[in-house]
């Protein structure tokens, strides 16, 4: 299924998700215009898992497996965020307590699907949810947040092996701002997303699956307060000498970001900053 998810167009991925979700009475698909926007499953769990189906634009190309790594022939694999979609479907098969689930679309162009979902679902239907976990993060063993909340939430997610890092944007941010429910975005094992060096580490993906299964068995009981976001300056500038507190478009991957960084004469998002900082700058010079 993982290979198929990585290769399939969005409509086919939603069809695959619907086939998996059809066994649950409380799931629903909401559509808008010509494109599915989200699939939503409401259970009794305090945890909601979320991933987005869309990827950056890419052409179909054969997949290559090197050990635990999957790469695409044209480089842009689309594991951001098909890896998260796969992880949630795998978790649903194995979880003792089934989580709430949200699959969104058009995250890569500003979180349109999540915004639409938040317009559709009333807060009362989410009264039982204490934490959203987005499976939409690069690397392994990391989590990021886009809103401020009680340290007990950080202590909770860290107890399962995740370490805090800094992120730019994911559509779980919109969910938290609308519903005041804490959210974290955890790594699912992809690296170099949106570039020709993109790859997915299967072992890292499954490590996240195992950790989320443990979280579902021991969910955080209380919904802790979400605070108003601090200014970008205090959130980022103190931690990155060259962070520019401004909203704009990354000159490397052309994605919107709420914080940009200066490197190699460009202004880039956090993901691309990390990628270039690690020495992966062959694309800059046409090599």
Structure in a nutshell:
With 287 residues, this protein is an alpha+beta fold. The protein has helices at 2-7, 10-21, 79-94, 112-120, 151-158, 172-179, 202-217, 232-237, 270-277, and strands spanning 27-32, 35-41, 47-52, 63-66, 69-72, 100-104, 131-138, 142-144, 148-149, 163-164, 183-191, 199-201, 226-227, 243-244, 248-249, 256-257, 260-263, 266-268. It has two domains: 2-227, 3-Layer(aba) Sandwich (Aminopeptidase); 232-285, no CATH class.
Could you walk me through the main structural features you see in this protein, from its secondary elements to its overall organization?
The chain is α+β, with helices and mostly antiparallel strands. The chain has helices spanning 2-7, 10-21, 79-94, 112-120, 151-158, 172-179, 202-217, 232-237, 270-277, and strands at residues 27-32, 35-41, 47-52, 63-66, 69-72, 100-104, 131-138, 142-144, 148-149, 163-164, 183-191, 199-201, 226-227, 243-244, 248-249, 256-257, 260-263, 266-268. It folds into two domains: 2-227, Aminopeptidase (3-Layer(aba) Sandwich); 232-285, no CATH class. 31% of the residues lie in helices and 26% in strands. Strands 1, 2, 3, 4, 5, 6, 7, 8, 10, 11 and 12 form an eleven-stranded mixed sheet that branches. β17 and β18 form a beta hairpin. The model is unreliable at 230-246 and 281-287 (pLDDT under 50).
